[in-house]
Write a structure and sequence with these properties.
alpha+beta; two-stranded parallel ribbon; 21% helix
Length: 75
């Protein structure tokens, strides 16, 4: 999509988050923060701040991909 929209005023970004604390894992027997040994996962506000950063860039700036991880996340 990003390539198809090159030259337009539409920006496309892919945010690749690490573990984010949401309700998604509430019923899991072992929470991913335990199995992945992540002491302080990302929170929703971290993702919101990332989106605000991307959309606050000047019109000529494109951020096609951004990975955001908690400190203990191994990749």
């Amino acid at each position: 999509m990003r390539i198809e929209l090159t030259g337009t005023n539409i920006k496309v970004s892919c945010i690749e988050p690490g573990l984010v604390m949401t309700e998604l894992h509430k019923d899991w027997e072992v929470h991913p923060k335990e199995s992945m040994n992540i002491h302080e996962p990302l929170n929703v506000d971290n993702i919101v701040d990332t989106i605000k950063f991307i959309i606050s860039q000047p019109d000529h700036v494109r951020i096609p991909k951004l990975m955001i991880l908690p400190k203990d996340h191994n990749i």
